[in-house]
Amino acid sequence: MVHIIGEKSSLFNNYIAEIRDVEIQKDPLRFRRNLERVGEIMAYEISKHLDFKDINVQTPLGTAPVSVVEKNVVLATILRAGLPLHQGLLNSFDRAENCFISAYRKQDENNDICIEFEYIASPSLDDKIVILSDPILATGASMEVGYKALLEKGVPKHVHIVSVIGSQQGVDYVKEHLGEENVTLWVGAVDPELNSKSYIVPGLGDAGDLAFGEKIDSK
After folding, report:
1. Sign of CA dihedral 175, 181, 182, 185
2. Which residues span the domain enclosing 15?
3. Which of 19, 122, 166, 183 could potentially form a cystine with 187 if both were Cys, beta carbons 3.0 to 4.6 Å apart?
Protein backbone atom coordinates (compact mmCIF):
# COMPACT_ATOMS: atom_id res chain seq x y z
CA MET A 1 0.00 0.00 0.00
CA VAL A 2 1.21 3.51 -0.83
CA HIS A 3 0.21 6.66 1.09
CA ILE A 4 1.05 10.06 -0.50
CA ILE A 5 0.57 12.51 2.38
CA GLY A 6 0.87 15.69 0.31
CA GLU A 7 -2.11 14.79 -1.90
CA LYS A 8 -4.40 16.23 0.77
CA SER A 9 -4.09 19.92 1.62
CA SER A 10 -2.62 20.41 5.09
CA LEU A 11 0.17 22.18 6.97
CA PHE A 12 2.38 19.27 5.90
CA ASN A 13 2.70 20.86 2.44
CA ASN A 14 4.12 24.07 3.96
CA TYR A 15 7.09 22.02 5.16
CA ILE A 16 7.43 20.29 1.80
CA ALA A 17 7.43 23.71 0.09
CA GLU A 18 10.24 24.98 2.35
CA ILE A 19 12.25 21.77 1.93
CA ARG A 20 12.14 22.24 -1.85
CA ASP A 21 12.79 26.02 -1.84
CA VAL A 22 16.30 26.76 -3.14
CA GLU A 23 16.58 29.93 -1.01
CA ILE A 24 15.37 28.39 2.26
CA GLN A 25 17.69 25.44 1.61
CA LYS A 26 20.63 27.78 2.16
CA ASP A 27 19.91 27.56 5.90
CA PRO A 28 20.94 24.01 6.90
CA LEU A 29 19.35 24.36 10.35
CA ARG A 30 15.99 25.21 8.80
CA PHE A 31 16.35 22.40 6.27
CA ARG A 32 17.05 19.83 8.99
CA ARG A 33 14.20 21.11 11.15
CA ASN A 34 11.75 20.85 8.27
CA LEU A 35 12.79 17.24 7.69
CA GLU A 36 12.17 16.64 11.40
CA ARG A 37 8.70 18.17 11.11
CA VAL A 38 7.88 15.88 8.21
CA GLY A 39 9.08 12.93 10.31
CA GLU A 40 6.83 13.97 13.19
CA ILE A 41 3.78 14.15 10.93
CA MET A 42 4.65 10.85 9.26
CA ALA A 43 4.91 9.24 12.70
CA TYR A 44 1.44 10.53 13.57
CA GLU A 45 -0.04 9.16 10.34
CA ILE A 46 1.65 5.78 10.76
CA SER A 47 0.46 5.54 14.36
CA LYS A 48 -3.14 5.36 13.11
CA HIS A 49 -2.29 1.96 11.61
CA LEU A 50 -0.67 0.43 14.70
CA ASP A 51 -2.26 -1.80 17.33
CA PHE A 52 -3.53 -0.12 20.51
CA LYS A 53 -4.39 -1.26 24.00
CA ASP A 54 -6.47 0.29 26.76
CA ILE A 55 -4.78 1.30 30.00
CA ASN A 56 -5.78 3.26 33.10
CA VAL A 57 -3.69 6.29 34.05
CA GLN A 58 -3.68 7.64 37.58
CA THR A 59 -4.14 11.42 37.66
CA PRO A 60 -4.05 13.70 40.75
CA LEU A 61 -7.86 13.55 40.83
CA GLY A 62 -8.73 10.05 39.69
CA THR A 63 -8.18 7.42 37.01
CA ALA A 64 -8.43 8.06 33.26
CA PRO A 65 -8.83 5.34 30.61
CA VAL A 66 -6.48 5.87 27.65
CA SER A 67 -5.82 3.96 24.42
CA VAL A 68 -2.06 3.75 23.74
CA VAL A 69 0.18 2.06 21.17
CA GLU A 70 0.48 -1.58 22.19
CA LYS A 71 4.04 -2.31 21.04
CA ASN A 72 7.04 -0.09 20.64
CA VAL A 73 8.58 0.28 17.18
CA VAL A 74 12.08 0.12 15.73
CA LEU A 75 13.18 3.20 13.79
CA ALA A 76 15.70 2.48 11.03
CA THR A 77 17.40 4.94 8.72
CA ILE A 78 20.03 5.06 6.00
CA LEU A 79 23.04 7.24 6.83
CA ARG A 80 23.67 10.12 6.49
CA ALA A 81 20.79 11.89 4.79
CA GLY A 82 18.18 10.03 6.83
CA LEU A 83 19.26 11.39 10.22
CA PRO A 84 17.01 14.52 10.45
CA LEU A 85 13.95 12.59 9.23
CA HIS A 86 14.81 9.82 11.68
CA GLN A 87 15.00 12.38 14.49
CA GLY A 88 11.53 13.63 13.65
CA LEU A 89 10.15 10.09 13.87
CA LEU A 90 12.05 9.63 17.13
CA ASN A 91 10.56 12.84 18.54
CA SER A 92 7.17 11.14 18.30
CA PHE A 93 8.12 7.50 18.94
CA ASP A 94 10.38 8.63 21.76
CA ARG A 95 10.86 5.18 23.30
CA ALA A 96 11.66 3.42 20.05
CA GLU A 97 14.61 1.13 19.47
CA ASN A 98 16.91 2.33 16.70
CA CYS A 99 18.70 0.87 13.70
CA PHE A 100 21.29 2.55 11.46
CA ILE A 101 22.30 1.40 7.99
CA SER A 102 25.39 2.63 6.17
CA ALA A 103 25.04 2.74 2.39
CA TYR A 104 26.30 5.11 -0.27
CA ARG A 105 26.18 5.87 -3.98
CA LYS A 106 29.15 5.08 -6.19
CA GLN A 107 29.87 4.86 -9.91
CA ASP A 108 30.83 1.49 -11.36
CA GLU A 109 33.26 0.92 -14.23
CA ASN A 110 30.52 1.82 -16.72
CA ASN A 111 29.82 5.11 -14.89
CA ASP A 112 26.46 3.75 -13.75
CA ILE A 113 25.28 4.66 -10.26
CA CYS A 114 25.14 1.73 -7.84
CA ILE A 115 24.53 1.43 -4.10
CA GLU A 116 27.17 0.00 -1.77
CA PHE A 117 26.14 -1.42 1.62
CA GLU A 118 28.72 -1.18 4.45
CA TYR A 119 27.20 -2.10 7.82
CA ILE A 120 24.10 -2.16 10.01
CA ALA A 121 23.73 -1.49 13.74
CA SER A 122 20.40 -2.93 14.87
CA PRO A 123 18.48 -4.75 17.61
CA SER A 124 16.65 -7.97 16.78
CA LEU A 125 13.76 -7.20 14.43
CA ASP A 126 11.82 -10.44 14.79
CA ASP A 127 8.06 -9.79 14.92
CA LYS A 128 8.56 -6.03 15.38
CA ILE A 129 7.12 -2.99 13.63
CA VAL A 130 9.95 -1.28 11.73
CA ILE A 131 9.87 2.22 10.24
CA LEU A 132 12.63 2.59 7.61
CA SER A 133 13.29 6.20 6.57
CA ASP A 134 15.29 7.89 3.83
CA PRO A 135 14.28 11.39 2.66
CA ILE A 136 14.71 10.66 -1.06
CA LEU A 137 13.23 7.72 -2.97
CA ALA A 138 14.90 8.13 -6.38
CA THR A 139 15.52 4.84 -8.18
CA GLY A 140 14.48 2.78 -5.16
CA ALA A 141 17.83 0.96 -5.07
CA SER A 142 18.97 2.47 -1.75
CA MET A 143 15.68 1.54 -0.12
CA GLU A 144 15.96 -2.03 -1.39
CA VAL A 145 19.49 -2.27 0.02
CA GLY A 146 18.25 -0.92 3.37
CA TYR A 147 15.29 -3.28 3.43
CA LYS A 148 17.43 -6.34 2.67
CA ALA A 149 19.90 -5.26 5.37
CA LEU A 150 17.03 -5.22 7.88
CA LEU A 151 16.17 -8.82 7.09
CA GLU A 152 19.64 -9.85 8.29
CA LYS A 153 18.48 -8.86 11.79
CA GLY A 154 15.20 -10.75 11.87
CA VAL A 155 11.79 -10.98 10.24
CA PRO A 156 9.69 -7.88 11.07
CA LYS A 157 5.96 -8.09 11.58
CA HIS A 158 5.52 -5.05 9.34
CA VAL A 159 7.80 -2.50 7.67
CA HIS A 160 6.71 1.10 7.04
CA ILE A 161 8.96 2.85 4.50
CA VAL A 162 9.08 6.66 4.81
CA SER A 163 10.38 9.17 2.24
CA VAL A 164 9.83 12.90 1.84
CA ILE A 165 10.10 13.08 -1.97
CA GLY A 166 9.85 10.11 -4.32
CA SER A 167 10.03 9.67 -8.06
CA GLN A 168 7.32 7.73 -9.82
CA GLN A 169 10.04 5.29 -10.89
CA GLY A 170 11.13 4.83 -7.27
CA VAL A 171 7.58 4.26 -6.07
CA ASP A 172 7.00 1.70 -8.83
CA TYR A 173 10.29 0.00 -7.99
CA VAL A 174 9.38 -0.37 -4.33
CA LYS A 175 5.93 -1.71 -5.24
CA GLU A 176 7.50 -4.28 -7.57
CA HIS A 177 10.48 -5.39 -5.48
CA LEU A 178 9.25 -4.83 -1.91
CA GLY A 179 5.54 -5.10 -2.52
CA GLU A 180 4.89 -7.75 0.09
CA GLU A 181 1.84 -7.72 2.30
CA ASN A 182 3.86 -6.53 5.28
CA VAL A 183 5.36 -3.41 3.58
CA THR A 184 3.68 0.02 3.44
CA LEU A 185 5.18 3.05 1.67
CA TRP A 186 4.64 6.58 3.01
CA VAL A 187 5.83 9.48 0.86
CA GLY A 188 5.27 13.23 1.01
CA ALA A 189 5.15 13.92 -2.71
CA VAL A 190 5.84 12.02 -5.94
CA ASP A 191 7.65 13.71 -8.85
CA PRO A 192 7.55 12.52 -12.47
CA GLU A 193 11.15 11.89 -13.48
CA LEU A 194 14.84 11.33 -12.77
CA ASN A 195 17.75 13.07 -14.49
CA SER A 196 20.88 11.35 -15.89
CA LYS A 197 22.48 11.32 -12.41
CA SER A 198 19.39 9.69 -10.84
CA TYR A 199 18.30 12.86 -9.05
CA ILE A 200 14.57 13.52 -8.82
CA VAL A 201 13.21 16.36 -10.98
CA PRO A 202 12.04 18.79 -9.66
CA GLY A 203 12.89 17.09 -6.35
CA LEU A 204 14.94 19.03 -3.84
CA GLY A 205 18.59 18.28 -4.62
CA ASP A 206 20.96 16.26 -2.44
CA ALA A 207 19.34 15.98 1.01
CA GLY A 208 22.55 14.85 2.71
CA ASP A 209 24.58 17.76 1.39
CA LEU A 210 21.84 20.27 2.22
CA ALA A 211 21.59 18.98 5.79
CA PHE A 212 25.26 18.38 6.58
CA GLY A 213 27.44 20.00 3.91
CA GLU A 214 28.97 18.78 0.67
CA LYS A 215 31.01 15.58 0.63
CA ILE A 216 33.66 14.04 -1.61
CA ASP A 217 31.85 11.48 -3.75
CA SER A 218 32.95 7.83 -3.56
CA LYS A 219 34.55 6.52 -6.73
Report:
1. positive
2. 2-51+70-212
3. 166
